[in-house]
Structure formats: structure tokens, C-alpha cells
Amino acid sequence: MSLTNDLIKQRLTDKFGEQVSAFSESYGMLSFEAPKEINLKVMQFLYDDAELRFQFLTDLTAVHYPDQQGRELAVVYHLHNLVDNIRIRFKVFTGISQPDVFTATRLYESANWMERETFDFYGVNFVGHPNLKRILNVDEMDYFPMRKEYPLEDQTRRDKDDEMFGRGGSVW
Amino acid sequence: MTDKFQSESNLAFPGEVHPSPTGGVLVSKLDDVINWARSNSLWPLVFGTSCCAIEMMSAASAKYDWSRFGFEVARATPRQADLIIIAGTIVNKMAPVLKRLYDQMADPKYVIAMGACATSGGPFFYNTYSVVKGADHVIPVDVYIAGCPPRPEALLHAMITLQEKIKSGLTREQIRSQKPEQSF
Question: Which domain holds residue A13?
Fold first, then answer.
């Protein structure tokens, strides 16, 4: 019997009940969220369970939703079961005024640098991280560049029009 | 023989030959001869930060072969290099490293800014939080090349331009010593 999305969802709801929510499947990949207080419990369960065996952290990043009051930042974990070759997406949301999320470095070694990157660009404070400092940007930077606090590029700019590069464009 | 040495080209050996029955006497200036020697043996630093470095490697390869012009001894240490080709984007975090590499190079030293990023920031000129808008904010540049990335021929042209620049005049240090009020 191979592991399916329905089975994973069943195991999670059996274990955590109402606390795991917002299940969805986009392009066949199971996605769900949980309160940030239990992110390590959920991942520990996914890691240790004899059937689930999500023992590889493929990706860890964040998303900024400036319009969601009180849950502006989503931390996204992509977990991989290497035995059954199944991936899932796990999200926790946090407010931007106190963006504290427990670190996953005890569970997944690969979380170390990815949490540093997420801190660098989104300012998520990973509580318990062994070395939480900027990894890609200069240490002197005093803001988090990937937050949606900065204006988008001027949409009326014409110097980047495809027409300028000899391949069509809007002026036709 | 005299024709060869008295050619108008900047690439010829400096000085003029006075013929004599047994051959000839070359009269030249030591500064010019030193500049000639320097220009024909420029050792580039192995330094590339993005896709321009691929074109730089291509220029070093057999097809374009920059060793035809005296650039074949690419050095992996700044202490032995004469020339740094800034092949790629310089980000804020790289800027102090680039400055340190330049400072570690022995005089006389030369800089080529290869491509749009090294010249001006290029495609990252607007709306960037990390890119230095031109490597000349960090170190002085002798020759700029346009292109994104420039073809190997363009790099070779820039290198030959640098050779002619070296042959045609003083080194930067000599120029600087003549202008004490110059601010950098």
C-alpha cells in the first residue's frame, strides 16, 4: 500500500484534530497549515511516523501577505518522503510585529542556512536557531528586502518595452 | 629592418633605429620600453562573478586564445596578477572583497570593467537592494566594455585597448605623483 495524500491527511487529522487545517491539493501536492506554536510537533510527527517518514526538508521560505491582519508572514516548509517519493507543503502563519517561529534545525540540518536566508529576506525570527544572522545580504542592512513594503517598479516605464529589443511589444 | 621598427603603429617596439654599417643602433626611452614590456605580459586575475566570466573563459580558450596577446598566464592570486577583469555583477557584499583583491595586487595594476553590470549596474540599475551601480564606485577602472555579456572579441578589443593605453603614456602611479591635489 503506497502513501497517498488522503492517507497523509487522515493521519494528520487523527493526530492533531482541528489544529491542522486548510488542506488543499495544487498540482497533486498536498498543502496544509497549523498554528505556529505546534510547527515542531507536526514536523516531528511527520518525521517519526513509520508510514509518513518525511525526513527531508527540501525547501524553507516565507511569503508576505500585507493584507492579512495578524498573520502577515507565512513560513513554508516543503517536506519530502524519499522512500515513497511524495512531497507535501506545510505552512505556519505569524504576525509581523513579533515574527517568532520555532527553528527546525534540530530536526533537519538543511534548515540552518534556509532559516538564515528566510530571516535575511523576511525577518522571521527563528527561535532557537544556533546562528541566526544574515547570510546573503550585507550585515549592515537594516531592513528586510523581500517584504512588500516597497513600491513596485513604475508601471508606466517605456524603456523596458519589448519593442526596444526588436521583438514586438505593446506599440503595434 | 628600419621600416619595421619605425612603423606608426602603437604596437611596434618604441624608439628609432639609426643604421650603421654593421646593423644599427636603437635609440629609445627606458620608460617606453618598460611600458612596452608591461603591456605585452599582462597576467589577468582569475576573477568572475557571473555570466561575463563564461565569455572570459571563452576568450581564454583555444578558439579566441587571448594568449596571442600576452594574457595567457591567468593567476589565481592577486599577488601575481597585473590585471583584474571585473567579469560580472558586483554586489554590496562583494564590494569589500573586490577592494581587497585590488589592494593586494602589486603595482602597476590595471582594471577592465567587463559588461553592463560592472560598468553601471546594468539590468540591476533600478529597484535593487544589493547591486553596486558600477565597479568604479569601488576601484578605478581603465577600460569599460559594453555588452551583456560582451562577446570574446569585445573583451580582446578591450585588452588590446588597454595595451595601447599602457604603451601610449604614463602609469597611473606616475600620473598620480604629478598631481598631488588629485582626489580619488
Answer: 5-111
